[in-house]
Every structure is written in C-alpha cells, then in structure tokens.
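Let's see one such:

===
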Amino acid sequence: MSRKFKRCLITGIAGSGGSYLAEHILDNVRFIKIFGIYRHKGYSDLLKEKYKKRIHLLKFDLKNFDKLKKIIKIIKPDLIFHLASNADVKASFKDPLTIVKNNTEITLNLLEVIRKVKSKALFVLCSTSEVYGNVKKNEIPIVETQKMNPASPYAVSKAFQDMLAQVYYKAYGLKIIITRMFSYSNPRRVNLFQTSFADQIAKIEKNKNQNKLKHGNLKSIRSFIDINDAMSAYWQTAVNGKIGEIYNIGGSTTLSVKEVLDKLLNLSKVKIKKTIDKSLLRPIDVTLQIPSVKKFKKHTRWMPKVLFSDSIINLLNYRRNLK
C-alpha cells in the first residue's frame, strides 16, 4: 500500500536539486505542505513566488543543533528528504576540510534530532553513486551491495552520511531509506559537466566573451536520466520504497562524457571548437558509473519517461533562456 504524507520537509530546498524536488511534489501531489530549510538564497524566491502559501521556507544553518531541534518539533514532518550538502566534487579536492565537515555534521545533527524528538517521519537520505568510486568492468552494472570506495573528499562525506543513516536505522529504529542517484540532467546546477557544456554553448551562441568550449576528462562513462525522472524517483522512494533499503537510481542511457558533449555540440546554432582545461581535471576521477536499478523498479514500480534526446534539448534550451 502506498504511503501518504501531509507535511514534507526538504533540506537544501533552495539548491538545484531541492528546488526541483519541491516543484515536482507540489505540482503532482494534492493536500501536502512543503517545508524547506536552506542556507543560501538560491531558488528560494522562485519557490515563494510560484507556490506562496503551500510552501514554508526557513533560512538557517543545519549545524545549529538547538535551532534544528526546535524547528523539527514545530513542523512535525511525516516525511524528510535530506538533500542539503556541498556537492562540488572538484572543490572538495581544494577544500576538503570545509566540505567534509559541513556534510558530515549537518547529517549527524539531523539524524540525532530525529532520534531525540522521537520523530516517526520517513527519512530519505539522498546519497550518490560517487560513494562507489572506481569499479572494475566485471562489477558492472553496479548493485547496491557493491563495496563503497569513494574517490574524492566529497564522496567520502557522502559515504559517511550513507553509513551513518544505516546505523541509525539498525540501532535506533528510525524509518530510513537511502537512495544513491547516478548521473542526471540538472539545468540549474552549472558545475555538472553536461550543464557546464550547455551553458558554454549558450554563451558562445550569444558571443558572450567566449569562443571555445572548455572541458575536463571526456573518457568517463555514465548512465543518464532526466531531472524530471530523477525527482519522480525520489517521490516514488517515499511512497513505495521499503524501509531500511538502499536503492540505486539511474537511467538506461549509457554514454561517455565525450558523447554527451558531441550531442550537445550538434545542437548548437554555431560551430564551436573545444579545448581541454587542465583546471577542470580532478586528481582522481570516477570512470565507470553504470547502475543496476532492478531492485528500485521492482519495489517502487518507477520507470523513466523522458528520452535522453529530449532531455539534452531541454537542458540546452534552459541555459539559452538565461542568457
């Protein structure tokens, strides 16, 4: 039987992923209130303007344990999506202290608050395929039991979140489900490689002080799903996912980063040359990210709907409309 919710809390709601998730829920689910915690302005004004009384946004730092505890007691959410984290993989190599401390502390605070106030909320930890790191070809497709082998400080922080959530489920009986999202299009997050490519193409088309597209490693192979399918998957996790489970979420379209770039360049209105930018290369890069999503589909009945060809057109047009 599908679960129903009345009061949903999204951490990191003003970020790219959090804002899309809030929109998806409010556009598709009736009789639900969304509460959101955010630290930076991001897309908070967009959400306030679009949804007005259906959404309640709170600006504060999740590292403030006492305030977080008060907020959870007041809101009394029956569903929590934890998306808040600094998700910049490349930046985590330059400043691991800031990113790892932030991502670990806010998650520990949130889980400990839920435990202490005896919340019965379903807690969905939005983790990432980055926790798997580099896997061997004979370990593809990646299943949820694959050993975690993070390849960046950011991935280490997410592995911590992931393992901590497992302990809070097993030791304290919290209602927790963990998702590990593989590559998905996110037009609002420009530090993702496909969004960066689309953004640069849009700038070059408008002659905005750039004539070559800069890129990093093009050899990495990934699976892809559209932002709308990714957000639908998060919601189906809450509605139909099994408590205590870990789910891979990803698409069936598998391409190298170079193939994604070439497809975007073919959609450009002008001819664009590309050049490698060594500053975009990571000290360690994840090279093979192809998931098995059999368990997730079986438990939730989720299926992706958006074709990859449509997804990259939508991505490029979104960035064009911002220029």
Q: What stands out?
A: The radius of gyration is 19 Å. Residues 65 and 109 are 6 Å apart (CA to CA).
